Structure formats: structure tokens, C-alpha cells
Model the fold of this input.
Amino acid sequence: MADASFQQEFLETHNAYRAQHNTPPMTLNNELNAAAQEWAHRLLTLGAAQHSDSNDGENIYFKWSSVPIKLTGKEAVDSWYGEVQQYNWRNPGFQSNTGHFTQVVWKASTQLGVGMATDGNKVFVVGQYRPAGNISMSQNFRENVLPRA
Done:
């Protein structure tokens, strides 16, 4: 379960990356936290990563280890943001290998929710974003995925 400390670190990591892109900070939303937590538990039960049918934006992180995992909120966000290295700034738009990154820094997204579920060796983290990012017209990407300041 994503406790208050995990949620806060998750939020702060998002907002630190967003600041690098001249993008306003997000705030935690309790409704999104509950939905993300419910979906993270569902993914753990399924044993597979898949998106929910939410109208909100969504990022999913999965990690498995033969030794017990103690995951931080920062670790999941860092992995999503790491996709920035592959983003094509000359041709903005959705790319399957950078969709997590673009959702993290999507300027129009203002609210964030997080859920985390683990059995000790598998962990799923679900981030939900409102309003959703990655709207599929390139102009939306130019306006919402800003280069580093």
C-alpha cells in the first residue's frame, strides 16, 4: 500500500522533474489515490501490468526480484522520467517508448494519484493523472511537453 510517505515522495519527485520543464506542480488527489491503489492491487492479483479503463492518464511500474523489494516513490518516477533521453524534441508527439515521461511532465495535468501493491517480491506502482496527458495531436505535445529550462 502506498502510505503517506510513499505518496509524498512520489509527488515531490514528479514536481521536481516538472520544474525542470517549466511545468507547474501537481497536487495529490484522494479520489485518484484510491483508484490507483485499487488498480495496483488488481494488477498484483493478475500478476501482469495492464492499463485500467479509467479516463484519467495512467503510468504503471512493475518490478520483480528474488529478494524482498523495498521500493520508494522516487524509484518508479525516475524510471518513467528516464525515457526523456529517447524523446524526439524535433518531432513532438506520442511515442510508445516515451509515453511515461510525457505523462509525468504533461503541463495540463494538475492532479496526481498513486497506488502501490506488493507481495514482497513483486511490486506494482500505478500513477493516475488528471486531466490525462498524451493527447494525440502534435500541437498538444508542443504545448504540454516543454524542453528543460
Notes: The mean pLDDT is 95.
